[in-house]
Amino acid sequence: MKKVLFLFAAIMMTANLFAQEQEALLECHGNTYFCGKEAMSRRQMLDWYAQRNCQAAYMQFAKGQRMANAGWAFLGIGVAMDLGSAVCAGMYVYKTVDYCVNSSSSTKESEMYGYLASSIGLGVVGGAFELACVPLLVVGYHKMHSSVDVYNVSCSLAKTQPYWSIQSSKNGLGLALNF
Length: 179
Prior knowledge:
This protein is α+β, with helices and mostly antiparallel strands. Helix content is 68%, strand content 14%. It has helices at residues 2-19, 42-51, 55-101, 109-155, and strands spanning 26-29, 32-35, 38-40, 163-169, 172-178. Strands 1-2-3 form a three-stranded antiparallel sheet. Strands 4-5 form a two-stranded antiparallel ribbon.
């Protein structure tokens, strides 16, 4: 009888391991996030973290997303300023040629140098915005991608696992499912 009880207890303990449905871990390939074989967008990732109450991964992903969006905005502003710089440089060249060819031109030297100063200023500030976008994009995307690891390590493993144990009471020994 003792062997049967021991065998029954061993089967119950191992059956628990096979009966648990393991939640699929998240993966990141490039800028695509996967839960099992299902691809998810950025918005779905935020909802995923919120539904599973993983505050650490949610905050890291949201912060990374804000940084990446700021990086793209800085890049857009920088490119727009570079285009403005090119237009001002073109105007400077046009006014300079007009001034040199036509001696009776109404173009003033101060107007020409204003275009030159504007071109240089817009080019420098645009370049600064473009340089600032690089670390914002790199760090932002790194935070978003590493939020998957935060979820896989801290949130998916933090759930309580039910287990079997043998307990004694005044009525004798018994098998208990703890959860």
